Amino acid sequence: MATAVDDIESGLRALNEARMKCAAALGHSARALESARAELVEREREYAKAHSEALSAGWTAAELKKVGIEEPERRAPGRPKGATTRRNRTASESAADAAGSAAPTDAPTPATDKAVPAAV
């Protein structure tokens, strides 16, 4: 014989089963979305590389745009557009710059208003 408590428990189980089905469907959708996003990132990377290769082959961005090929949102990996290489500074150049910015001058000091000779 079913009691009121048994009826309550079976009702709660039924509600929980429906919630669990929804949660399982949500979990599957979340994994599918994550996979699609990873796929999109890979396709964007390939598109950026192909676009860069087309530019290197002599096409201009304007020419490609005329035929419906837009510039990629993300650029292909590598040096940023317009960047130039810098000469590495030697340790002595770095030390000279550091010493030069902190080197004393023959200017008067605020405390004495007298010129202090520069150390050599």
Q: Which key phrases capture this entry?
A:
single chain; 120 residues; mainly alpha; 59% helix; 0% strand
Q: How is this structure best described in words?
A:
It is a single chain. The protein has helices spanning 4-56, 61-66, 91-102. The protein has 120 residues and is mainly α. The N and C termini lie far apart (105 Å). It is built from three helices and no strands. 59% of the residues lie in helices and 0% in strands.
Helix tally?
A: 3
Tally of DSSP β-strands: 0
The amount of helix comes to: 55-70%
Biggest sheet layout: none
> What is the chain-wise order of helices and strands?
HHH
Radius of gyration: 35 Å
Give the low-confidence spans.
Answer: none
Distance between the ends: 105 Å
Shape: flat
Return the average pLDDT rounded to an integer.
82
β-strand amount: under 5%
> Given the helix and strand composition, which structural class is it?
mainly alpha
Describe the structure concisely for a colleague.
The chain is mainly α and 120 residues long.
Outline the fold blueprint.
Layout: H1 4-56, H2 61-66, H3 91-102
